[in-house]
Amino acid sequence: MLDKVEDYVNEAIEKKCNVTIERMKKEEAQASGVEGSFWEKYPDVVDVYVVKADDGTVYSKELCGGPHVENTADIKGTFKIKTEEASSAGIRRVKGVLE
């Protein structure tokens, strides 16, 4: 299963996806399926980071401090998962590196 996550991330890197920020109401973000934790800690208007390929594929749509690239082409290397652990009930957390 972890190899499928690695493949998914590496596919997004290879496609040179644009990374954009969309500002929206928190309720709208939640209703649209944006990924995030601790929703109660966010303000009424949130920044949603979107990783989207030219073919329309959305690889990620989430709340957070955000990725620090404007395009996945800026990411050098291959994503590799190093650890996987429980984060909370039914939620797994992976930590990865670029090799």
Please describe what this structure looks like.
With 99 residues, the chain is of the alpha+beta class. The chain has one domain. The protein is built from 2 helices and 5 strands. A 3-stranded antiparallel sheet has the order 1-2-3. Strands 4-5 form a two-stranded antiparallel ribbon. It is globular. It starts with a helix and ends with a strand. The model has no long low-confidence stretch (mean pLDDT 90).
Short recap of the structure:
This protein has 99 residues and is of the alpha+beta class. It has helices at 2-14, 26-31, and strands spanning 18-25, 45-52, 58-63, 79-88, 91-98. The model has no long low-confidence stretch (mean pLDDT 90).
Could you list some keywords that capture this structure?
99 residues, alpha+beta, two-stranded antiparallel sheet, 2 helices
Task: Map the helices and strands.
Elements: H1 2-14, E1 18-25, H2 26-31, E2 45-52, E3 58-63, E4 79-88, E5 91-98
Antiparallel strand pairs: 1-2, 2-3, 4-5
Structural class category: alpha+beta
| Estimated share of beta-strand residues | 35-45%
Question: Count of helices?
Answer: 2
Number of structural units classed as domains:
1
Strand order of the largest sheet: 1-2-3
Structure summary, number of beta strands: 5
Q: What's the average pLDDT?
A: 90
Whole-number radius of gyration?
A: 14 Å
Regions with little confidence, pLDDT below 50 for 5+ residues: none
**Helical content class:** 10-25%
Element-level helix/strand string: HEHEEEE
